[in-house]
Q: What sequence folds into this?
């Protein structure tokens, strides 16, 4: 009968041989085109996250070159929206969006709104 030490060494040697064969088989499958190759970058990554309260969180996720804003936690998760294509890469992200024609710039009141310091017309509630 073999010693217990020799049995344990044989078991670890057999395990190492099997793991080596599995590793070599995956390399051969990738080289032969049977398994997908590992890409240089990841397809999905979390760019930023902001805790709104104890349960809810806003998360900015980048997927396949596009960015999406997710609201998670609470009763259900929600896709707030996809960011425009020009915001997909940080290099060409605009610092401020220019207002469209007819829209006031920041700090300017909209048509019919009083400027700061001017009295507002308040209609009584019924």
A:
């Amino acid at each position: 009968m073999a010693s217990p030490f020799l049995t344990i060494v044989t078991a670890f040697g057999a395990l190492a041989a099997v793991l080596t064969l599995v590793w070599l088989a995956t390399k051969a499958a990738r080289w032969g085109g049977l398994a997908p190759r590992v890409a240089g970058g990841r397809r999905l990554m979390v760019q930023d996250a902001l805790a709104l309260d104890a349960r809810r969180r806003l998360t900015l996720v980048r997927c396949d070159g596009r960015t999406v804003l997710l609201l998670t936690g609470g009763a259900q998760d929600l896709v707030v929206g996809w960011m425009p294509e020009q915001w997909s890469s940080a290099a060409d992200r605009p610092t401020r969006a220019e207002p469209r024609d007819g829209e006031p710039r920041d700090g300017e009141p909209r048509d019919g709104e009083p400027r700061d310091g001017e009295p507002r017309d308040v209609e009584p509630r019924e």
